[in-house]
Amino acid sequence: MTPSNNRLRQRTAHCLAIWFGAGLLRPAPGTWGSLSALPPAALIAWLLGWPGLLAGTLIILAVGLWASALYMRDTGRHDPKEVVIDEVAGQWLALLPVATYWELYPAAFLFFRFFDIAKPWPASWADRDLPGSLGVMTDDIFAGGYSLLACLLLVLIIGY
Known about the structure:
Elements: H1 3-17, H2 29-75, H3 85-95, H4 105-118, H5 123-129, H6 132-158
């Protein structure tokens, strides 16, 4: 790989890891990362429905593992607060049951932020014990999974 290709790969990974700058916003970069995940999720859901959003979530998960690993390697820091691609993956997972019900996006956002901050087991285990980018991404996937269940329950209660 040429130096210019390596530099492009590094810049791309960094840009994705901080989700195009959302992770640099203060305070609460995780909240900004989750908020910035909503518009592209809505666009994907509008164009492709929940299956498209599921595919996007899986892609973001894979890309997030790569991008956050490269970012952490380059900065020498473990789980830097500005890395928010993990919030994007978790937020998109949370949105699956409400993918085309945009009026329920605020509830999915609040559920995800609650579970991401509270980190009920096994999210706390993943955050604490899994190494590198696997730990960075996995705790948010667990939080997204809990939020998905909460959104599914909400949809069932409302009767959508």
